[in-house]
Amino acid sequence: MSGKLQGRTAFITGASSGLGRAIALRFASEGANVLCTDLSPTIPPAPSDTTDASPHAVRGDTPVPTHDLITSLHGPSRSFYTRCDVTSSTSISAAVQFCVEKFGRVDIVVSSAGIIAEGGGEMKRVHETEVEHFDRDMAVNARGVWLTCKFGIGQMLKQSPLAGTKGRGWVVNMASVMGLVAQKGISSYCATKGAVVQMSKAMALEYAPERIHVNSLCPGYVNSALTQSLFANAAAREYYDALHPLGGMAEDPDVIAKAAVFLASDDAEWVTGQALAVEGGYTAQ
Q1: What is the CATH number of the domain that holds 113?
Q2: Can 189 be counted among the known catalytic residues?
Q3: In this structure, which of 47, 72, 161, 236 has its CB flanked by the most CB atoms within 10 Å?
Q4: Which residue in 81, 189, 207, 282 is the catalytic one?
């Protein structure tokens, strides 16, 4: 590995599964210390008919918590876990302080905790959507990102820039192609991801003078626990594959994690306020 994140400390929400887990593992392989946060350190169990040997797997192919897997691969004290509810400002503030206690600083923030409250694979128009689903999507996907940035960036401003780097901090907020283009049946989810894209642009402008980079990642569909409910049958899977001209849906979330490494490294020294679409050509159509 090239060690593009050597010596940096990353604070990652939603790190127990999904894209957050893949990003945490990839960051550690690039030399970063990683504070894993989530509602639980354990990952969701895999469907009984699913196998995946990749250590970056979104689905629960292994019972090993992300932080334990990192320390087993890269040595002790490279990663810790703390519980964090991104809808709670008190919880996020405490988690950031825990990161500082363990590693002394926060250089990278990745807001990866997210949900689709509509769930169940059932697409509903606005008049059919429960208000509670809209509120829950907004609480986790939009407010949660804003709060994570508030306390994460606040810590970056308190500390000296990391020696030998070309910035003071790096923020990667998980949006979606649904933040760039719409899809019927998940209006509340689309609203939250559009919010992530726009708040990231605003934050990029606010903190450019301090050389804190703020960007959003906009993945296409990745085969994951979050999207499994959409693939009720082979026809549904074929439909979603067809939305991605470059070989269909992503099977390995590590393709998204590699893009996150770019945005959190000096390779992106002049990149801020961007919504990076990693989606196999989805939005080019």
Answers
A1: 3.40.50.720
A2: yes
A3: 161
A4: 189
